[in-house]
Amino acid sequence: MSTQTTNAPTPGAVAAAAALQSTRLSSLDTLESEAIHIIREVVAEFEKPALLFSGGKDSVVMLHLATKAFWPGKVPFPVLHVDTGHNFPEVIDFRDRTVERLGLKLVVGSVQEFIDRGELAERADGTRNPLQTVPLLDAIQRNKFDAVFGGGRRDEDKARAKERILSLRDEFGQWDPRNQRPELWNLYNGRHTVGQHVRAFPISNWTELDIWRYIERENIELPGLYYAHERDVFARDGMWRAVGEVSQPRPDEEVITKLVRYRTVGDMSCTGAVESDARTVADVVVEVAASTLTERGATRADDRISEAAMEDRKKDGYF
Amino acid sequence: MSTETLAAGLETALPTTLFRFATAGSVDDGKSTLVGRLLHDSKAILADTLDAVARTSADRGFGGENATGTRAIDLALLTDGLRAEREQGITIDVAYRYFATDRRSFILADCPGHVQYTKNTVTGASTADAVVVLIDARKGVLEQTRRHLSVLQLLRVAHVIVAVNKIDLVDFSEQVYRDIEADVQKVARELGLGREQSNASGVTDLFVVPVSALDGDNVVDRSERTPWYSGPALLEVLETLPAADELEADLESFRFPVQLVIRPQGALAPDAVAAGLDVEAYRDYRAYAGQITEGSVKLGDEVTVLTPGHEPRTTSVIGIDFAGRSLQEAAAPQSVAIRLADEIDVARGDTIAAAGTVRESTADLYASLCWLSPKPLREGQKVLVKHGTRTVQALVRAVSGKLDLATFNVEPASSLELNDIGHAQLRLSAALPLENYLHHRRTGAFLVIDPLDGNTLAAGLVKDHPGDHEDERYVI
C-alpha cells in the first residue's frame, strides 16, 4: 500500500506507517519523540546552538536524532569536539567521516594546544578527561554558542540524576545544583542573560540499554571499538587498559592479548575495556541487559577518583 | 542465565511502554526506602552500586549486629544524592531514577518531601502519569498528606496511589489499614479526586496499598502477611495503569503547537540525498514541525491554524512526515512534521488543531498559579507567559485568592509567596488559544517567567473565564 498525496514527495519508505498506527508507542518511540521535541525547541529558541560530538555512542545517537528532527533539511548547527589529544585514532577517524557524510561544520577545542601554550598542566596521573573543561568553555565563548547539546544521561551518575534537561550555566560554565529552575510539563525555559549559556540534554531519560536498543533498531554505525575485538591490554585499577602511545604498561604490568570491547569511549589514558565476545549490536544489547556493573563504574578511572567526582567536575563547567 | 535464554526473553518482552511516576511523602515516612526497595527488587541496582551501599551500611551498623539480607542494607542509600546533600543529610531536589520490568520502562521522579514540597511535588507531578503518596501507618493521614493530594488534584495527575507504609510496625493490622483507607477516601471525596468523581475529562484513579518498604511486603510481590488485602502489589498497579499519553492520544481534540518550519530551500541533508532523495521533488518542501500534545491526526483531516493576532484559518492535512517516512496517521506524543493543503503563513507559536474543536483565542487569562519563586507575585507586576511554543508579555491585573491546602478553602490574598497556590487574572499582550487545564493538560498549562533574570516563577493552569460555561463561547 502506498500513500499518494497532492504535492507530497513520497519517499521510498511508506509501509512503516502502518506499524505506528493504532498501537501504543513503545518506550523507545516515546523517548525518541521527547528528544526530538527538545532538540527542535532549542534550535527554535537559541541563536547559536552546537552539539558536543565525541564519536561516543551517546553523541552519535544525539546526532542521529538531530538528522531525524530536521529531515529532509540539514542538521542546522555545528558539532563541537574537545580533543584530549589522547583519543583513540579510530574514533577520530569515525568523527571525521560522520561530519563529512552529514555536511556539518566541525569545531575542535584542543587540550594539547592549551598544554603547549602553558595554559593547562598535565596531571600527575596522566588523565586528561578533567582537563577538557577549559578548552570546552573557551570554544563556547569564542564561537558564541548559547546552547550546547550533550549526550548526558541521568542514569549515568548521581549528579546527572538531578540535572535538568535544560541546564543553565554561568559565565564560568558552572552548574549550581541548588539553584535550578523547576522543569514543568514539556515547557522548557531557556532564557538566559549575556554570558550565560545553556547545556541541553535531550536524552536525559534514556538508559544505557535504551541507547543500545535504539542503535540496533535504527542501524546506527558506531566506532568499531564498541564491539569485541582482539587488543593488547594490561590490567590496572581493575580494568583492562589498551597499550598505546599514552598508556604504557609499567614493568610489573603484563601485556596480554584479549578479546575486549569498550562500553564508553573517552580518553585512552583513563578508559578501560571490558572482556567481551559481543561482536554485533545484538550481542551487545544482550550483554548490557545482563550486565551487573554500571557503565562508568566498569570503565572510567576518572569517575573513581572520588565518590563525588562527576558532581565536582560538573560544578566546574564539565559536560 | 545463559545468553540464549536471555535473548529469547528480550524478544518476547519487546516492545515495552514508558511510564512516568513520582513519589511524594512527609519526613520519615520511608520514601527513600520505598524507592530503594523498588529499584532493588526490580533488579535495577547493579552489583557495584549495591556493594558500595552494603559497605556503607555495615560501617554505620545499619539494622543491628544480627541483621541479614536486605535488612542489613540501608536501601535509602540507593537514592542518596549529591555530596552537599550527604554532608547535610538533606535532599536538595527532584532526582530521576530508571528501572524496567518485562512490561514497562519506568521513569521515577523522586521528590523530596520536607522542604519546598509544593515546588517539588508540582514539578514531579507535572510530567507524571501517576504519583505515589506515602503515609506512615502509625501516623495516618496528616496535614501534609492532604496538601499533597490537593496539589495532585489541582494538577489532574491521572492516577494517585496511596502507599500505607510501615504496615509491619502496626503488626499488619487490618483495622489500622481500613481506618487510614477510609480517611484517604474521605479526603478524596472532599477534593473530588478518584474514580467516583470522574467525568469525561478527569480520569483520576485512586488506589490504596498497604506496604512495608523495609521488608518488601506488597511492593513488588503480594505479601502473605496481609491476607486481608486482596489487591495488587504497588509495582503491579504501576505496570498496568494506562499512561497519560495513552489517555490523551484518545481525545478527539487534536492539538499541535508548531515548533518550527522545516523549509530546506535546497539545503537538503547530504545523507538523505546520498540515499536517493529526489532533490527536485523536495525543492519547495515546507512542513511544520512539532509534537502532538493531544489527540490524533490523519491525512485529509480538516484543521484550524491559530495564529495570535490573526483570524483562524481552516485547511486540511496533506502530509504527516517523520524522517523520510510518510505516515497515514499520528497521535500524541509523536513528534512529526505536518504539511497543509493551502499555502498559508504558519510560524512558530501557531497551533494547528482539529477544526471545530477550538475556542476563541483570548488575551484575558484566568488561572491558578503554583508560585515557585522566593520573589513574591504582586498585582501590577509585568511577567512573561510561555504557553505552548509562544512566549508573550503579561500584566498581573489581580490576585483573587489563595488556596488553604489543608482545608481546601480559598482565602483572600493580594500577593502569592513561595509554595503558595492561588488564583490570578492576567492580561496578555496577544490573544492565545488558551484552554481549560481540566480538559487539556498540555494546552492548558503555562509558565510564568521573570523578564529580568529569566527564571521560572510559577506553574500556571488555565481556568475558564468567570461566568463562562462550557460550549457557550464561539467554537472554531
Pick out its properties:
heterodimer; A: 319 residues; alpha/beta; 6-stranded mixed β-sheet; 4-stranded antiparallel β-sheet; 10 helices; 32% helix; globular; B: 476 residues; alpha+beta; 6-stranded antiparallel barrel; 24 strands; disordered N terminus
Give a verbal description of the structure.
The complex is a heterodimer of chains A (319) and B (476). With 319 residues, chain A is α/β, with parallel strands linked by helices. Helices cover 32% and strands 14% of the residues of chain A. Chain A is built from 10 helices and 10 strands. In chain A, the strands form 2 sheets. In chain A, strands 3-2-1-4-6-5 form a 6-stranded mixed β-sheet, sandwiched between helices. In chain A, strands 8-7-9-10 form a 4-stranded antiparallel β-sheet, with no helix packed on it. In chain A, strand 7 (229-236) and strand 8 form a beta hairpin. In chain A, helix 2 (27-45) crosses helix 3. Chain A is globular. By secondary structure, chain B is of the alpha+beta class. Chain B is 21% helix and 32% strand. Chain B has a 6-stranded mixed β-sheet, with helices on both faces. In chain B, strands 7-8-14-11-10-15 form a 6-stranded antiparallel β-barrel. In chain B, strands 16-22-19-18-23-24 form a 6-stranded antiparallel beta barrel. In chain B, helix 5 (117-126) runs parallel beside helix 6. Chain B is globular, with a radius of gyration of 25 Å. Mean pLDDT of chain B is 86; it is low at 1-13 and 196-203. The chains are: A alpha/beta (319), B alpha+beta (476). Chains A and B meet through helix 1, helix 2, helix 3, helix 7 and helix 8 of A and helix 1, helix 3, strand 2, strand 3 and helix 5 of B.
